[in-house]
Amino acid sequence: MHKKLFIPGPVEVKPDVLEQMARPMIGHRSKEASELQRRISNNLRKVFFTESEILLSTTSGSGLMEGAIRCCTAKKAAVFSVGAFGKRWYEMATSNNVSADLFEVEMGKAVTPEMVDKVLKTGNYDLVAVTHNETSTGVMNPIDKIGEVIKKYSDIIFIVDTVSSAAGTKIEVDKCGIDICITSTQKAIGLPPGMAICTFSNKAKERAEKVPNRGFYLDLLSLYKYIQKKDYQYPSTPSISHMYALDYQLDYILNKEGLENRFARHLEMAKVVREWAKKYFELFPDENYLSNTLTTVKNNREIDVSFLNKELAKRGFQISNGYGSLKDKTFRIAHMADCKMEEIQELLININDILGLE
Ligand SMILES: *Cc1c(COP(=O)(O)O)cnc(C)c1O
């Protein structure tokens, strides 16, 4: 039996979107490929509220995260981490020989603008990396307020991991002053895994021009230059199947569901899961910074999370245990992509039934 996924990626993909992945190929050097890729970029600019260029990469989101921190740090990166995915950025920097410092907050808490300001005042950094939606703790960082602080420092490149939030909650890239905003296909966009997307500002481009060793496959500047010169074609063969599905899904998001309706639906589902969590358990994160795309529940009843998931599997559902050190101490319910309120309610009824909660 297929288990309906309520995990923070990969997500359930609608059958009509899956069908797009099975369409016959076109040459990646054709006029049709240019048109397809140009249309995708134009539509993604709307999703991210930006005038910046869009870059696509046939990697998962981590690929563009690694490319971004490597290509745009000339001096030193300040990585602000509120959990597992923040730390990953620091590891990417150090393993690429990119100079970086890690600033961590306690699990469940958010990065504050004051904290960023204090670090930038030292004058030691020229790039800030922040996770928008920390998928381990369920915290959503205030990137708009962090962006306001960063605007005071003109030489800072601001890169943001929105892998588990983009297209599920409003992210105004230009307003927040984000230079590189990164996401993957398998989360709130609602596609199979295998492609990454980012915005790329002029400021990011100018910075990358000053960084000598940007690597090859994930050199964001060379991707940028290539698509300018070759009418949105990419230097190496992209996943054309993902592009078909992305093009189709963007049309659905922008013209059928509507962006604002999509954000509202995510918030409505989040509210229902939060209320349920507060009634029977507790919320793990600071309540001022709750994620709209997933809820991390504190396992204060000490239930057996793997037992719950095994029982859910028999009924055709799957949720996530806590991430890393939060395993069994928390569990996570994702409410993202094209998940419907009825499906969330059905899941919660089944959890209550398995655990004997009333
Ligand atoms: C899933 C996730 C990633 C990793 O993305 P991949 O596409 O698997 O490389 C990074 N950051 C966050 C916040 C995520 O949720």
TrEMBL record:
Substrate binds at residue 332. GO terms for molecular function: alanine-glyoxylate transaminase activity; L-serine-pyruvate transaminase activity. It comes from the Bacteria. Gene3D superfamilies: Aspartate Aminotransferase, domain 1 (3.90.1150.10), Type I PLP-dependent aspartate aminotransferase-like (Major domain) (3.40.640.10). InterPro entries: Aminotrans_V_dom, PyrdxlP-dep_Trfase, PyrdxlP-dep_Trfase_major, PyrdxlP-dep_Trfase_small, SP_NH2Trfase/AEP_transaminase. GO terms for biological process: glycine biosynthetic process, by transamination of glyoxylate. Pfam families: Aminotran_5. The keyword Transferase applies. Residues 26-323 form the Aminotransferase class V domain. PANTHER family: ALANINE--GLYOXYLATE AMINOTRANSFERASE, AMINOTRANSFERASE CLASS V. This is Serine--glyoxylate aminotransferase. It comes from Clostridium sartagoforme AAU1.
